[in-house]
Write a structure and sequence with these properties.
The protein has four helices and eight strands. By secondary structure, it is of the alpha+beta class. The termini are far apart.
Length: 146
């Protein structure tokens, strides 16, 4: 009986702690919620906002800030000082850009990605890599450390 009480208390505690993040999670459109849960399973969502109805900004506690446009396509993934998961880059970057980052051993140094209709910009520890979608041209520039 004592074990059952401990188990029940644990379940209630977990539900109470996660209630806030689930409330924020429930605000997201399904497409965004699916994207977030695919790359950050069971995330603790700090905030989910839709400023001006033009974009969605999702902040994962102790994790990245994700920005999506009104069509629910991601436009920015900022690790907030932490490297991004390699699977995000494998799935979300054009193959040529991913291969470039992988061959230069930059995957573990990728801190943010910004995507526009024309360009991907990848921020590394001490460099910025841009990829032109139309020409598939990759350009690398040295920057100050993050």
């Amino acid at each position: 009986m004592k074990t059952l009480r401990i188990l029940l208390a644990s379940v209630i505690a977990v539900l109470a702690l996660s209630a806030c993040s689930h409330e924020e999670y429930d605000k997201m459109p399904n497409e965004i919620a699916t994207f977030v849960s695919k790359y950050w399973p069971d995330p603790n969502i700090e905030s989910c906002t839709n400023p001006g109805g033009e974009s969605w900004v999702i902040i994962i506690k102790n994790g990245p800030t994700l920005t999506f446009n009104s069509s629910c396509d991601w436009t920015s993934i900022n690790g907030n000082g932490l490297p991004l998961p390699s699977i995000v880059m494998f799935d979300q970057l054009p193959p040529k850009l991913y291969d470039y980052l992988e061959s230069g051993e930059f995957l573990s140094q990728t801190f943010s990605i910004v995507r526009t209709p024309r360009i991907y910009t990848v921020t590394l520890l001490t460099q910025t890599v841009t990829y032109d979608i139309a020409t598939e041209t990759i350009r690398q520039e040295t920057t100050a450390p993050v």
